Amino acid sequence: MLKNYIKTAWRSLARHKIFALINISGLAIGISAALVIYLIVYYDFSFDHFEKDNDRIYRVVTNFNMSGVTYHNRGVIAPMAGAVSKEATGVSEVSAFHQYNEVKVNITADNNIRPLMLKKQRNVIFADAAYFKLVTAYQWLAGSPDVALHEPNKVVITSKSAQLYFPGVKYHDVIGKQIIYNDSVRTTVTGVVNELPQHSDFIFQDFISLATIPTSGLKTNFSYDNWTMTNGSSQLYIKLVPGTTVPQVEKQLASLYKKYSPPPRANGSKYSIVHTLQPLSDVHFNADYGAYDEHTAHKPTLYYLLLVAAFLLALACINFINLSTAQASQRAKEIGIRKTMGSSRAQLIVQFLGETLLLTLIAAAASLLLIPVLLKAFSGFIPAGVSFNLLHQPHLVVFLLLLIVSVSLLSGFYPSWILSNYNPALVLKNQAYANTGKTRKTWIRKTLTVFQFLVAQLFIMGTIIVSKQIHYTLNKDMGFKKDAILSVYTQFYSKQPNLRYVLMDKLKTIPEIEMLSLAGSTPATDGTSSGQVNYKDGKKDIQTDVHFKFGDVNYLKLYHIPLLAGSNVHPSDTVKEAIINETYAHILGFKNVNDAVGKTLLWSGTQKLPIVGVMGDFNQQSLHQAIKPLLFSAAASNSYTIHIALKPQNADGTAWKNALSKIQMEFKAVYPETDFEYDFYDESIARFYQSDMHVSSLLQWATGLSVFISCLGLLGLVIYTTNLRTKEIGIRKVLGASVAHIVSILSADFVKLVVVAFIIASPIAWWATSKWLQNFAYHTNINWWIFLMSGMLMVVIALLTLSFQTVKAAIANPVNSLRSE
Question: Where in the cell is it found (predicted)?
């Protein structure tokens, strides 16, 4: 019986090659897209599940509320960890660590150990022994967690770091070796641990004992004892005792902050700091606070991906259903004979489902060949850890099998139910549809076709609006100049910090350079530096979280940031005076920005800071974020980046290339052991919107695939329709109908379906894109022409698809179509 089913199924596919090819192509695309999306979603949702009691582990984060606007920081006030450890109840583990990224690592020669110097090593942290009590999945290969990090100048490294620093040395022999970080932090290896076994946001490789910070002169860098500064690198994790609730602990955090922080300012202040608990399961998905490998997944995007996969599979299944039911009359006699010979309806259903399963298996095999292509096409969107290997991914095999079964049932059940329901007596009398009207009841096929083009048009409209927003973000005036500006980074942890001034003097002699500025960060950056600043005028005390920028007197000129009132800052090694932005001036209550000049701010709780000027507003981050209150000051001690404005490019396009070559030569003359690194500022701005560009790329692919699958189904239906109406077409031509008239008759019904889909899709697309644009503080408009253009584009694509068959049928010789009469 099974052999007969397989043979019959194969013969059926062979008899209808074109329809089989259309179905296989659509299903292969849908299945391969679903598999790729499954790999992405599975990867992101698998983070940190291995950790014991992960539902009781939380990261303490900080939220600043200023005038009703909340700002997020994944760090905490550094001394908060000690206070929680000593005074908080309901907490079983408290682990504090500080990130120490882009670190220079030196390994000195020792017996058989070769000297090694590595620049900008990432994933180095200062941690205490509690870290390994909280994250217990590490396997200790050498050393003991009980004593490894108790004393200053000790370090635990992972097996990966051990193999990099001490190649060929056994892990136990690594104990006692010396590692020097940034030429100043000398440590002794006291432990070696294995890599974490699964996907995790705890990506750290070197763990320097936390007690090293107060003994190595780094207390100021990490605001180690400062209850007024929140440092994003200062991390605090806790594990709750079973039965302890999050509100109970958050209440204690508020009490500790109130107890140890400076007294809050009164009289109308709208500024507050709130410490909250972020679940470990949220760390990988919350961009407000971020993860440590700079890859945070976006849950809504993952759900959208699943929706895209479901849509693509649904479109492919609809193709199968439409073509199968459309061909029903061609298999009517076969079904009648089988029923007459004793086949039950159940057996016929199994037979037709078997045909669907065979077709789906072929499509699944083809999809496995497509997956590497799709992974490469989506390489900019897919996380680096996503891979495809059936032999080492049993969960993928299980998913593929479930997918094959599901697609087979979804595609095959309805057609098999319809086909197996024929009355054998009527079929054999060639009256299968007599008195039933089933040949004319095509509303199901029409509904499914409308759904196909509805999905395709939603993707087209979404793609156009997302692309329009990205164009808007890249071209909007952000309040500063961003073209022909590059940043060159000097050594922050240098024993000779004055070398940056030597480099500045050398760069001034390069004729292709228009202006230089020694400063901190560029006007708009991914990260921010902020702190609490007070303003008191005798009547009110306004306490605000303010963003800080530092630079010399050329900074505002170089970036073309206008000075609206007052004067520029004077050169200084430390913060002595301030220029504030227009937003901050309005927050302080000044309608006329000139009135803010001469007023005094309270900096770091005690230092008086006169306002010498007010500058124009500019975006300090991407357009996702609103403009924040900002303070600019000259502080050479915080300025390690050289900002370079180049003169306009010459006619042959070589000026900038020559300038870069000269800048690099001068840089290496001053910093011979440091890598020359630079960024063009307009490219840095573009990187702000990488995730949005990935969404755009995803939509483009989804649009292309959905349109292709929909058009495949449309082509199949029009082939079937023209074949069914061959004699009608011949008669019309004999009676004088033109080719254009016949083409319009054959195309009209299908074009109507596309128009109906457009009418339904437009309001849905408007609502969905409006919701997406709410992620931007500044965004483009949704214009009516976008929807009209999308609809017209879909009509043109449908007409082109229809024309392949309708024109062929219309120009055919009517003698051939009428000869059988």
Answer: Cell membrane
